Amino acid sequence: MDKKITVIGAGNVGATAAQRVAEKELADVVLIDILEGVPQGKTLDLAEAAPVELYNSKLTGSQNYEDTANSDVVIITAGLPRKPGMSRDDLLTTNARIVKQVTSEIATYSPETILIIVSNPLDAMCHVAYDVSGFPPNRVIGMAGVLDSARLRAFISMELNVSVNNIHACVLGGHGDTMVPLPRYSTVAGIPITDLLSEDRIEALVDRTRKGGAEIVGLLKTGSAYYAPSAAAVEMAEAIIKDQNKILPCAAYLNGEYGCQNLFIGVPVKLGKSGIEQIIELKLTPDENKALATSAQAVQGLVDTLKTLDY
To answer: Residue 303 in 3-state DSSP?
Structure first.
């Protein structure tokens, strides 16, 4: 194939992302991990599934970043996952070190690539990748809103017993407890959910969306979500590889938009071959603006903490 996607981290999120890329035949796949044999074994397993699933993507597992050279898109999933009782923010120092090292290697071998950051805490890790890579802001993108919106869509579907195909949802802000789901921009066949559900039920769905990751961590007990996060990251990669100009909520570097300055935060963007082609500014109510400002402050707090750390 004439496209290459590298996935950093061969854990559940990374390996599942590699599988989705291969099955969609978006590109050849390189899977990188520090554990000897793990990316090699998982890519061999995927290659052996190809005759059954009928995909022709070339799959490479490696510890060597030279194998990632000239990647079109790099999905960074490396880092520690959450455990019960942990917030995404608890992972800050350790994952900052990991993302710093990974990004440095990628920038060396694929200086024109587009980065999709999945590692938590998501918004802060975008800042690490942005600072280390030196890439323009349109080529550093965080996977957050696509996942959070998917969770809200799933919960709306369960609540109303309607197909997820009919549902669109919008979630802004940081990827954490301060995220800002927007019910009036969330629709079923074009009908706002505010016309279909009571205020109490909407608030319950919004609250479940905010706690969606923690709910899965609590159920699994020894791991965190990976089916939905990998699907969200690959939807972003597909929009870039296919130059779809698709509007998706992603963590983007804001320079005045939504009143935020020099900060990665979740907003609707148009994704195409250059990465972020456009940041879309929605008209928010005073309450929505206040909630987004609170979320931005939480992200800024993490970024300020990063500046004090020796990582």
So the answer is: helix
Which of 142, 159, 187 is at the close of a domain?
142
Dihedral Cα 230, 81, 145, 69, nearest 10 deg:
-60
Using a 10 angstrom Cβ sphere, with 0-12 exposed, 13-18 middle and 19 or more buried, the burial of residue 7 is buried
> Given 82, 175, 210, 270, which residue is catalytic?
175
Q: Is 207 helix (H, G, I), strand (E, B) or coil?
A: helix
- Dihedral of CA atoms 183, 187, 190, 196 in degrees, nearest 10, equals -80
Q: What is the token pair recorded at 85?
A: 């009782």
105 with 157, same domain: the answer is no
- For residue 168, indicate whether it is catalytic: no
Q: pTM for the full model?
A: 0.95
Contact 76, 8 (CB under 8 A): yes
Tell me which residue range forms the domain holding 45: 4-142
Give the model confidence (pLDDT) of 132-173 as tens digits.
Answer: 999 999 999 999 899 999 999 999 999 999 999 999 999 999
Q: Are 169 and 198 members of one domain?
A: yes
Report the alpha-carbon distance of residue 213 to residue 226 in Å, rounded.
10
Question: Which CATH number is 298's domain given?
Answer: 3.90.110.10
